[in-house]
Structure formats: structure tokens, C-alpha cells
Design a protein that fits this description.
The protein is mostly helical. The chain is 70% helix and 1% strand. It has two domains: 162 residues, no CATH class; 106 residues, no CATH class. It is built from nine helices and two strands; from the N terminus they run ααααααββααα. Strands 1-2 form a two-stranded antiparallel ribbon.
Length: 269
């Protein structure tokens, strides 16, 4: 039984890897690069911080590298469902790849400086002030640009597509909507430094590395919302042949959004 399950899992993974490369090679290989970076940074954790600090700045880029990898794989997978020209397909793919690559670079550069949040702009009173501010502003320009591209992708998914399954289509749409709301929350995070104090640990039980505690944490809601882009399309695809599949994905989407809102509410109260 175990051998059969492993064989089935291996075949499934081979299919998804092959299909991912075929659908969008650029985004696929950049996703693999992000995963490789995350694994490399994980190996650096035992070595400690690159600067004098009680915190480990690699945690943030590790999480972003994994998240960016999943984002790239997802966008590369779903773009083929849009009825757009090859030129538009390539333009969206290349812009997405460029923006994610540059954003990851900024996050790593700030981590090398010992920053655990790439939103942070604190610097010593030296020439590094200009450097830090430039990274800060550039980072947010990249985020805004990528959010606009994703918003356009959402708009295109409300136009005719090649998808025949309403549940799968609505899984993608709802995933994109919650993802974009989470991007707006990211803007809120950027202007609420009181929630991003370095080394802050909220009281109560929690999940290490995921930034979640029983009192709530703003980045937990942000992280949960971002990955609606993976969770809801997968659920929609799984339900596509079920009776009342469209109603089911709507219900699950509402539940997902409710949890997202609950985490956000716990964070700001």
C-alpha cells in the first residue's frame, strides 16, 4: 500500500513539474530559484546573524522566498486559461518575473544588513540612511507594480476564459480577490511600525516561524491571505465534479475570508 501511494505521489509530482515547465518556463524556473534560495538561507540559520543582533534576519527572506516561489508557480499555471495574445502572455510573465526577482533581491539585501522586516527604514546616521531609504522606496514601488499586474489578471479572469469548470474558475477568482486584499494589508503593515518592532514576541501560545500567536499577529493574516491564491484554486479544482460545486467553493471562500478577517482583527485589537 505504501509503495503504491509513493508511486502515485511520484507520478503526480512528475506531471505537475512537467506541466508547470510547459505552461510557463520562465516563472517555473524562477520559482525553483526562489525555493533553492530558501533552502540555502535555511542552512545559514545555524551560523547566526550577519550583523550584531539578537534576531535571525534570514527568517523573513526564507518565508518570502517560499511564498514567491508558490506565487510564481501559481501565476504560471493559471495564465494559460486566459484568452489573451501570446504577446500579452509574455509581457505579464516577464514583468511578474522581473518584479519578483527585484523584490526578493531587496529583501535579501536588507537581511544582510540585519533587518528582519523589509519594510524597515531604520538606519544609523551615516550614508547608509540614503541606501536604506532607497531600498525601502524601491521595495514598495515593486510591490505596488506587482499588485497592479495581479489586479489586471483578476480582471482578465472575469472575461471569457478557456475553463469549463465554474468551481475551478471561481476558486481562482476568489483566491485572487483575497490575495489582493492581503496585498492592501501589506500596505497597512508598511505604515504601522508599531506592529513590526524588531524582536517583538506577543504573549500566548503560538506557532514559531509562522508568526502566529493566540493574540493574533498582523503578518499572520497577511501570510494567510496571500496563500488563498493557492488554496482556493486547488479546492475549486478538487470540487469541480461534485454536485453544487460552485456553491461549495463560494462557501469555502467565505470561510477562508472570515478566518483572514479574524486574524486581522486579532492583530489590530
Amino acid at each position: 500500500m505504501f509503495g503504491e501511494n509513493m508511486r502515485s505521489f511520484t507520478l503526480t509530482m512528475q506531471y505537475f513539474i512537467g506541466e508547470g515547465k510547459k505552461r510557463n518556463p520562465l516563472l517555473f524556473y524562477l520559482a525553483i530559484l526562489n525555493f533553492a534560495l530558501a533552502i540555502f538561507l535555511l542552512s545559514l540559520i545555524p551560523l547566526g546573524s550577519p550583523v550584531a543582533s539578537e534576531t535571525i534576519p534570514w527568517i523573513k527572506p526564507i518565508k518570502f522566498a517560499f511564498s514567491f516561489g508558490l506565487y510564481l508557480l501559481t501565476i504560471g499555471w493559471i495564465l494559460v486559461y486566459l484568452k489573451i495574445s501570446t504577446k500579452m502572455f509574455l509581457a505579464i510573465s516577464r514583468l511578474t518575473a522581473l518584479l519578483i526577482f527585484m523584490e526578493m533581491l531587496v529583501i535579501v539585501l536588507q537581511s544582510i544588513q540585519g533587518k528582519i522586516y523589509h519594510f524597515s527604514i531604520e538606519q544609523p546616521l551615516t550614508l547608509a540612511i540614503c541606501y536604506g531609504m532607497c531600498l525601502y522606496l524601491f521595495s514598495h514601488l515593486l510591490i505596488v507594480a506587482n499588485t497592479l499586474i495581479t489586479s489586471y489578471i483578476l480582471y482578465l479572469f472575469f472575461q471569457p476564459t478557456t475553463l469549463c469548470s465554474p468551481a475551478y474558475l471561481w476558486g481562482i477568482r476568489l483566491g485572487l480577490v483575497i490575495f489582493l486584499l492581503s496585498c492592501l494589508e501589506g500596505g497597512f503593515i508598511a505604515f504601522q511600525d508599531m506592529y513590526l518592532r524588531q524582536g517583538q514576541v506577543l504573549s500566548g501560545w503560538g506557532l514559531p516561524f509562522a508568526d502566529y500567536t493566540s493574540r493574533g499577529y498582523l503578518t499572520s493574516s497577511h501570510f494567510f491571505g496571500l496563500h488563498a491564491l493557492q488554496a482556493l484554486p486547488v479546492i475549486g479544482y478538487t470540487l469541480r465534479n461534485r454536485l453544487h460545486s460552485q456553491q461549495l467553493i463560494f462557501s469555502i471562500g467565505i470561510i477562508y475570508f472570515t478566518i483572514f478577517g479574524y486574524l486581522f482583527g486579532k492583530a489590530i485589537n
